[in-house]
Amino acid sequence: MKQEFKKWLINQNSQYINDCGIETILSRVDDELSILQIATEEERIQLLEWLDQFIDNLTI
Fold it and tell me: pLDDT tier at 59 (50, 70, 90 boundaries)?
């Protein structure tokens, strides 16, 4: 699932995502896309938004 999330992040073609760093973003989630404790509160908020969008995209 993490690989699919990585592809989704890349496909967003977002300067903000690129500035954050895709590998950095991915380092904050495990293979099942659970947010790891190392993520800051700000990162958690952003990750939840991206993960919601990613999951919504999977169901369309």
Answer: confident
Model pLDDT, residue 58: 86
Three-state SS string over the chain comes to CHHHHHHHHHHCCCHHHHHHCHHHHHCCECCCCCECCCCCHHHHHHHHHHHHHHHHHHHC
Residue 60 has pLDDT above 80, yes or no: no
How far apart (Å, rounded) are the C-alpha atoms in residues 21 and 58?
Answer: 23
Amino acid at 19: D
